[in-house]
Design goal:
The structure holds 2 protein chains of 2 kinds. By secondary structure, chain A is mostly helical. Chain A contains 7 helices and no strands. Chain A has one domain. The relative contact order of chain A is 0.14. Chain B has a two-stranded antiparallel ribbon with strand order 1-2. Chain B has a domain of 218 residues. In chain B, a hairpin with a 2-residue loop joins strand 1 and strand 2. By secondary structure, chain B is mainly α. The relative contact order of chain B is 0.10. The chains are: A mainly alpha, B mainly alpha. At the A-B interface, helix 4, helix 6 and helix 7 of A face helix 5, helix 6 and helix 8 of B. Chain B: Keywords: Cell membrane, Membrane, Transmembrane, Transmembrane helix, Ubiquinone. Chain B: It is a multi-pass membrane protein. Chain B: It comes from Vreelandella maris. Chain B: It is found in: Cell membrane; Membrane.
Chain lengths: 226, 496
């Protein structure tokens, strides 16, 4: 079965999955952001490969340029005078939490995979022929696991972006690249980009007001005040 | 069920004046929002001027609907068909939205003058405009793409508004809300992808004809339902709601609790009535969760020490009433009478709650602003010094408790009647428990405010009109019960 795969597509799928993995699970935040660039670049090629040049263009503009810049802005690398650039995620997780989240993500992975395998009989791109789709399912599952696992707000924002990309690949696989599907994906890209901008502004402001510790409290206000 | 949402062909084409009214209703808020960002209004009168054309557009659409029945618009852009429809329910929700947003906008200048909101305050206006346009679009849209765009615009505008106060807790709560809302929207998108892949179209009217029950419809309904439930703060996914309201500005809270979460609820019912018209279990699961929401939200509101948490938790409980009505609206073998009763009760409860909750948030905001205290204990002595704010709070809570003759009473009466006809006794029990719990937390709040032994402290005088606007909203919620025939007629109108 492997012989029928397109070599370029296999390479793209591997590149997407690999860069997504590093981006999601590297505690060094600058490196993770750099790998986000790699990932988004691979996404552009993937859209070209799937025959959607307009999506590739909007991914290049919204995904690579704007969203990537947002991440660097949130890290404090764009404005030299900014307070305390973010470097590492130092928050630790208890083991019970890790186990819970991994089980959750696995369940999601199995559910989405089963849904796509059994529910949609005649998909536009069958997953047996297109490794990009398999990469999409895998990326979505990994990103959801990372989203649930991490407490650092910056990493959750990264995970949300990768989750979005995984879902968009799935969408293209399930519904093809018709006008309606391309439109849905473009709107999704725009929303993800706007959301990331808002998130980057929030992270910067929080750092300015409360320091790094504020980013790891899982959205809960400070305990000492209560 | 789908005809109730106006998903059928209209008899008449809309008139030219109706086109203009639609354009004003959808685009004018954006323009005014942009203008107000450039020149922030210091007084209420520019807001009054700006709201006249807006309310007029709502009125024209109402008259157009009453004359011609259902109206539809359709555009084709790059091979995509985008469509809008105006039925009685859309008119009712559109008018509700415009009234509440205008009230919140009128309230804002006074609020800003008293609180010194900081440099970000001017951005509230464009965000409010975007939220109003997006909400109006949600009530009118009939294809999944337009609904998605409107939902996301509304969600992002809401997040933006909630974090404008710029304090660290508000930012943290806003960030959490942002991430959850974005993940919710991806879940929704995955559901839409399944629909598009299986049936190849996005317009609701066409989908209602071709969708057959089966695993695809169930999966899509589950994904869309999960995404929208997250955004609507339905029971197990409600935890983000309270911290968000705890730290937001008063007019923003009023808008958010009154309208924004209702829009997700509206979409959930509309899409499920297409995807799951005859499923037995899904609406029942929602109803059981609604039962838990009523009890849990009521208990949270009863035990809390903070006034804003009380009002926000009560939203969780009140959404429970709407969830409990799901098995009466969706499902096999529901007799026409209980279904019609539940339909009327559902929307009357939603509209009445929107007005009452907006009024209640404004009253709570007034009390907090005047006393400078966020806790219930800080309310001691307000009965003598701030009787008007307390009165507004009281009138709004009459609607929430469902005492006659408020709209809450009429709505609950209809829901109860439908539940008794279909013999769903546990739902009746839920409704009655909810009423008792609401009474418990409202009277607890009043007990503190009538405490006369408190040390006297200084009260900040309120701007004129702040109590008046809240009072008007509360009275509207109250009067919708007495004059219920007007909204009910609208909900019936436009049947084929």
């Amino acid at each position: 079965m492997l012989a029928s795969f397109d070599v370029i597509e296999v390479l793209l799928a591997l590149c997407l999955t690999g860069s997504a993995f590093v981006c999601l699970f590297d505690r060094h935040l600058v490196r993770a952001s750099c790998f986000f660039f790699v990932f988004a670049g691979a996404m552009v090629l993937a859209w070209l490969k799937l025959g959607a040049p307009w999506l590739a263009a909007s991914e290049l503009l919204l995904g690579v340029l704007l969203t990537g810049l947002c991440f660097f802005y949130a890290l404090g690398l764009l404005s030299p005078g900014a307070s305390a650039p973010l470097k590492h995620d130092k928050f630790s997780h208890p083991w019970s939490r890790v186990a819970m989240r991994v089980v959750l993500a696995l369940a999601w992975f199995v559910m989405v995979g089963a849904a796509i395998r059994y529910v949609i009989g005649d998909m536009m791109y069958s997953p047996a022929e297109h490794p990009l789709l398999l990469a999409g399912v895998l990326i979505a599952a990994l990103a959801l696991a990372a989203f649930a696992l991490h407490r650092h707000l910056f990493r959750r924002l990264l995970a949300f972006n990768l989750l979005g990309s995984g879902v968009f690949i799935l969408l293209a696989g399930v519904a093809g690249t018709s006008a309606a599907a391309q439109m849905l994906i473009s709107v999704g890209l725009l929303v993800a980009c706007l959301g990331t901008m808002l998130g980057a502004l929030l992270i910067r402001q929080l750092l300015h007001l409360e320091g790094v510790e504020a980013l790891g409290r899982d959205g809960k206000p400070q305990r000492s005040k209560a | 069920m789908t005809w109730r949402f106006g998903l059928f062909d209209s008899t008449f084409a809309p008139l030219v004046s109706t086109h203009w009214a639609l354009l004003v209703a959808l685009v004018f808020p954006l323009l005014m929002g942009g203008l107000a960002a450039l020149f922030p209004p210091k007084r209420a009168w520019p807001v009054v001027l700006a709201s006249v054309p807006l309310l007029a557009s709502g009125g024209v659409l109402l008259i157009a609907f009453q004359e011609a029945g259902l109206l539809g618009w359709q555009w084709e852009i790059a091979g995509l068909i985008l469509s809008l429809r105006l039925n009685g329910l859309s008119v009712l929700l559109l008018l509700t939205t415009q009234c509440i947003v205008v009230a919140a906008a009128l309230y804002t200048p006074g609020h800003f003058r008293l609180t010194e909101p900081g440099p970000l305050a001017r951005w509230l206006w464009p965000l409010m405009g975007v939220a109003l346009s997006a909400l109006s679009l949600i009530w009118l849209a009939t294809d999944l793409l337009t609904l998605y765009i409107a939902l996301e615009l509304m969600g992002l505008a809401a997040v933006g508004m909630l974090m404008l106060s710029g304090k660290a807790p508000a930012l943290l709560a806003g960030m959490r809300y942002l991430l959850l809302a974005l993940v919710g929207s991806l879940t929704y998108l995955l559901g839409v992808a399944l629909i598009l892949g299986q049936w190849g179209r996005l317009d609701l009217q066409g989908l209602a004809e071709v969708i057959e029950p089966g695993p695809v419809a169930w999966f899509a309904a589950a994904l869309i339902g999960a995404g929208l439930a997250l955004k609507a703060a339905l029971f197990p996914l409600h935890a983000w709601l309270t911290p968000v309201h705890e730290n937001a500005w008063t007019p923003v809270s009023a808008l958010h609790a009154g309208l924004v979460i209702k829009a997700s609820m509206f979409m959930l019912l509309q899409l499920w009535s297409i995807l799951l018209p005859d499923t037995f279990y899904a609406p029942r699961i929602i109803a059981w969760l609604g039962l838990l929401a009523i009890v849990w939200g009521g208990l949270l509101a009863w035990r809390t020490d903070s006034l804003k948490t009380l009002v926000a938790s009560s939203t969780v409980a009140q959404l429970g009433y709407l969830m409990v009505a799901f098995p009466l609206l969706l499902g096999p073998d529901i007799a026409p009478l209980p279904r019609a009763l539940a339909w009327e009760g559902f929307w009357l409860q939603l509209v009445g709650h929107a007005f009452a909750k907006a009024a209640m948030f404004m009253a709570a905001g007034n009390l907090i602003l005047a006393t400078g205290e966020h806790t219930l204990k800080g309310l001691a002595g307000t009965s003598r010094r701030l009787p008007l704010s307390l009165l507004v709070f009281g009138i709004a809570s009459i609607t929430l408790m469902g005492l006659p003759p408020s709209s809450g009473f009429t709505a609950k009466w209809m829901l109860l009647e439908a539940m008794i006809i279909t013999q769903q006794w546990w739902a009746v029990a839920a409704l009655l428990t909810g009423t008792l719990l609401t009474a418990a937390y409202v009277f607890r709040m009043f007990r503190y405010s009538f405490d006369e032994t408190a040390p006297r402290h200084r009260y900040q005088p309120l701007a004129p009109g702040m109590d008046l606007i809240a009072m008007l909203l509360a009275l509207t919620a109250f009067a919708l019960g007495l004059l219920a025939h007007f909204p009910l007629e609208l909900m019936h109108g436009g049947s084929p």
